[in-house]
Structure formats: structure tokens, C-alpha cells
């Protein structure tokens, strides 16, 4: 039986410990095997906070819109969430902005983690600067295969390990869709893409972060089995998929 682990945003002022077990689906994205990074190099990166503590990652797609994973916001109340931007440090520095509206993809499925994207409308515009910039998205139906990409986030340096204060970055390589689907026994849909690199991965607790290739965002950290396991690539929501983009573009047009 497939078991889905959903990290609830507990009504606490401390960051909830990630729930994770080998062989079970994880919803997350903390960085394993990465290196220290600075926000000036990745100014699109934001932290989604629950009760003023880091919960998930996200990216700036318009001055008042943040893209993240739907499993980070599903059934959550916007009044308990905010974003922090313009800082390399977790829970510290930068600027905090309240979230006015949550727009999960209407077809998001918490069991299969399909359609795992959400657009957050902010209560006020982001002040764009060298530490806060809009990231362009990949073209719809763009060709896939053989790509290298970067993932950023504030996350555990190893499975169940502590989360560093400093932003982390890791480079991953695209995994063949058919091979990835075989590894996951048919769970990979058209709305998903797979990336991996031995000993490096997104893992435990920082879902919603951006997957960047050649200066454009191509995916959103979504789910996977284990952390940096060579048998299981990391799974990302595919921003080139028309069903994913129709939802995002519709919100952008209404902003």
C-alpha cells in the first residue's frame, strides 16, 4: 500500500520536525549534498513561513505572486502564512509579506501528488532589487531530456539532519521519464519531471522551491522516495506542462 506523508503546518511557533521513513513517499525538498549559496545569486528564492517559521520554498513569478507546491498550502489558512524574501538566511533578515490569497491547482491530488503547484497572491508588492527578482518560466511544451538544473532551499544537509541557516544550492541532472516512471512503478504523470545526482537531492521539508535551468524555472520541488537514493530520482512539477501552466498563467493574468 502506498503511504503519503504530508507534513502538517502545526499551530506552533517552532518549526515542525519533518516526518520521513525510508521507502515511503516524502513531500518536501530540503537540500542534501549541496553547497552554501547567497540570495544575490538566486534572488527569485523565497521562504514560505507558517506561524513565522520556515516551512517551504517558493519563487517570485510577479511582484505580488509566489509559486510554490500545493502540498505546502493545501487546506491551509492564508492568515497563518507569510513569505520572507531578500535574504540568504532561514527565519532571519529580508522582508516579510503576508499572503492574501492561496490558489492551489484545482486538480491537485494529495494522494498522488499530481498537479502539485500553488500560486500565492501577496498582500503587497515585492520591492525588486539585487536580492529580489522575478524568475521567468520555461515555455509551454518545451523540449525535455538531458538537462542540468539547480535547486535551492534551506534544508537538511543529510536525511533527518539539522537545517542550516544559510541558503543551499545543488545541481541535478534530468532522468529519463520512462526510467523514472519504472522506478516509481507507474506513479510519474505528464505533470511531473525527474532529476537526480548521486549523493545530492532535494529532501525533507523544503518543498515548493524552484528548479532552474539556463536561467528559467522549469519545475517545482514536489516529492520522491528517500533522500539522494540512486534508485529514486527527485520528482518535480513540470512547468512546461500545459495543464500546470494554464493555472499559473490564469492567476498571473488576474493579478
Automatic annotation (TrEMBL):
Q: Which residues form the Peptidase S1 domain?
A: 31-253
Going by the UniProt record, its keywords in alphabetical order are: Disulfide bond, Hydrolase, Protease, Serine protease, Signal, Zymogen
Please state the span of the N-terminal signal peptide per the UniProt entry: 1-16
Taken from the record, one Pfam family name reads Trypsin
GO MF annotations in UniProt: serine-type endopeptidase activity
A single GO BP term for this record reads: proteolysis
Q: By its UniProt entry, which InterPro entries does this protein fall under?
A: Peptidase_S1 (IPR050430), Peptidase_S1_PA (IPR009003), Peptidase_S1_PA_chymotrypsin (IPR043504), Peptidase_S1A (IPR001314), Trypsin_dom (IPR001254), TRYPSIN_HIS (IPR018114), TRYPSIN_SER (IPR033116)
Origin, by domain of life?
Answer: Eukaryota
What family does the database annotate? Belongs to the peptidase S1 family.
Q: What's the protein called, per UniProt?
A: Peptidase S1 domain-containing protein
Amino acid at each position: 500500500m502506498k503511504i503519503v506523508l504530508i507534513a502538517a503546518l502545526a499551530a506552533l511557533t517552532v518549526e515542525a520536525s519533518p516526518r520521513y521513513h525510508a521507502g515511503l513517499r516524502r513531500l518536501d525538498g530540503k537540500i542534501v549534498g549541496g553547497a552554501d549559496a547567497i540570495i544575490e545569486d538566486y534572488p527569485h528564492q523565497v521562504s514560505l513561513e507558517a506561524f513565522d517559521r520556515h516551512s517551504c520554498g517558493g519563487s517570485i513569478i510577479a511582484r505580488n505572486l509566489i509559486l510554490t507546491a500545493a502540498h505546502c498550502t493545501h487546506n491551509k489558512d492564508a492568515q497563518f502564512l507569510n513569505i520572507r524574501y531578500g535574504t540568504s538566511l532561514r527565519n532571519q533578515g529580508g522582508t516579510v509579506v503576508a499572503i492574501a490569497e492561496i490558489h492551489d491547482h484545482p486538480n491537485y491530488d494529495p494522494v498522488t501528488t499530481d498537479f502539485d503547484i500553488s500560486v500565492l497572491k501577496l498582500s503587497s508588492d515585492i520591492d525588486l532589487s539585487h536580492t529580489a527578482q522575478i524568475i521567468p518560466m520555461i515555455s509551454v511544451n518545451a523540449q525535455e531530456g538531458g538537462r542540468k538544473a539547480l535547486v535551492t532551499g534551506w534544508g537538511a544537509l543529510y536525511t533527518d539532519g539539522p537545517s542550516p541557516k544559510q541558503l543551499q544550492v545543488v545541481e541535478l541532472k534530468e532522468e529519463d521519464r520512462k526510467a523514472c516512471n519504472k522506478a516509481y512503478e507507474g506513479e510519474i504523470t505528464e505533470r511531473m519531471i525527474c532529476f537526480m545526482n548521486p549523493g545530492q537531492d532535494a529532501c525533507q521539508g523544503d518543498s515548493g522551491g524552484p528548479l532552474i535551468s539556463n536561467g528559467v524555472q522549469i519545475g517545482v520541488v514536489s516529492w520522491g522516495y528517500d533522500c539522494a537514493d540512486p534508485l529514486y530520482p527527485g520528482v518535480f512539477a513540470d512547468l512546461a506542462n500545459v495543464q500546470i501552466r494554464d493555472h499559473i498563467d490564469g492567476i498571473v493574468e488576474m493579478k
